[in-house]
Design brief:
Blueprint lengths: L1 H20 L2 H13 L2 H13 L2 H5 L2 E7 L6 H9 L7 E6 L4 H9 L6 E6 L2 E3 L3 H11 L3 E10 L3 E10 H5 L12 H11 L3 E12 L5 H17 L4 H18 L3 H14 L16 H16 L1
Parallel strand pairs: 1-2, 1-3, 5-7
Antiparallel strand pairs: 3-6, 4-7, 5-6
Helix pairs in contact: 10-11, 10-12, 11-12, 12-13
Amino acid sequence: MKKSIWATFASIREALQMRVLTTPSLLRLFEKTKRSANIMDHIRFWRFRSSLHRGKASLQITAVILNVDPNHLLKRCVDSVKNQSLPPSSIEIINNVSPVSLAREAGLSRVSTEFYVNVDGDMVLNPSCFERLFHVMSRFPDCAEAEASLEDPILGIIKGIKMYRTEPVRSIQIQPVVGFKNVDMYMSSQLHARGYTTVDTGTIEGWHHPEYTTSEAFWKFKTLAEKNRFYQKGPVETVMYLNMIIDYWQRTGDVVALYAMAGLFDGMTSPDVSGELDYRARDAYGPFTAVDACLKGMQHDR
């Protein structure tokens, strides 16, 4: 009888999880609620910031911004970094270096502080972002990477922004990426193998891609589909991404959603999914140019 009850609860739990994962509005609500529920963490942070010597702390932090031109969000990104309540001592912009692991190496070579924040040029951060990340680093000495979430207009709440402890990162290999599809997971695995931890702030600290271009949407979802195949995650996450795109289309009617869907389908059928994300010549990629010409033709005919 007891086993039967537990089996029933387990099946209900699994059904609810599936419902949340495949319903974008529920997933977004769940993620936001989860991050606002930990009252003790918020209290610890407010105590920390009331005693923080910002001038001294700022000297310990560098911001490394990875940018690929053309980028309509770069100015907003840089301004959001400059407007941090805990501003960095310097801002290093790495332009047009690809693949991403090479850009990460180039950024690390310019860091001389104890900590650095890796910022993508399509992120627009809350003023509290660096302070939240630094709080985690100060609280956990064995933490080599502190991370916070960002909000994306299509994907909802995602892991997005990280502060690194510089010396542990210097001790690992960033490039080439081996056994992983993306450099973030590769770096994390190496840091964890050396006994370091990753700690989440439990907060949402800004926006990822507050506005997508057509090219950005295509490549973002192509890459997500390829990651699913590389890590053999199965159909659930692919369905989740498809529902997110449909939800965005229903909410906005933005043609960007059609490019995102095209990218998702292209990533599901790519012959090789092993390569790291490389931005070089992405706008000359045949399937993208074909989709772009088709959709622009349809808009012109209207």
